[in-house]
Automatic annotation (TrEMBL):
Keywords noted in UniProt: Acyltransferase, Transferase
Protein name: Acetyltransferase
PROSITE patterns: GNAT
CDD domains: NAT_SF
Length: 175
């Protein structure tokens, strides 16, 4: 059995996080290094990495928002600044990104990261709901979110700048 550790990310993890990001998403969909640096420094409780045998092979990042029934689409935009939307007194956790290196997928590590993030943040902050987006192209991920209690609330047409200009599915879960 390999040693598995989920811990808060630090800026020293950026190179590994960027490797995971580039392997997990197509060029027009991955985030910039400055976005990840800002997420780590602004909300360290909401950015976790997964280590297997001492190697960083996954990450999950998040932000706390003020709850709104009708979330503005621009809040989800790729490259948005966490500092413009994050509010530690808010009640909704936005899971902004999750990535796992390909050779570690299918082992339950994504669910582990998701569970650890949810536990850590909801224990410390007054969170009553979680929200995320997923591409219509990523049906396996959508099924994982649905199995965890997330429900589709709306779609954003042509949101992802991938080859198909895929729609985004906004999913929310009440705690």
């Amino acid at each position: 059995m390999q040693d598995i550790l989920v811990r808060s990310a630090t800026v020293n993890d950026i190179a590994h996080i960027m490797d995971i990001e580039h392997e997990s998403f197509c060029e027009n969909v991955h985030e910039d290094i400055t976005v990840f640096r800002d997420r780590i420094t602004t909300f360290p409780d909401g950015f976790l990495v997964l280590e297997v045998a001492g190697h960083v092979c996954g990450y999950i990042s998040s932000e706390i928002w003020n709850y709104s029934e009708n979330v503005r689409e621009d809040m989800f935009y790729l490259g948005h600044s966490i500092t413009s939307v994050h509010d530690a007194t808010g009640s909704e956790l936005y899971v902004s990104s999750i990535g796992i290196l390909k050779k570690y997928r299918g082992k339950g590590y994504g669910k582990l990261l998701f569970s650890e993030l949810s536990s850590k943040v909801t224990e410390k902050y007054n969170i009553s709901s979680m929200i995320l987006i997923v591409s219509v192209q990523w049906m396996p991920a959508k099924k994982i979110y649905e199995s965890d209690g997330f429900r589709e609330t709306k779609r954003i047409h042509g949101f992802f700048n991938d080859m198909a200009n895929s729609d985004a599915i906004v999913m929310r879960k009440y705690l």
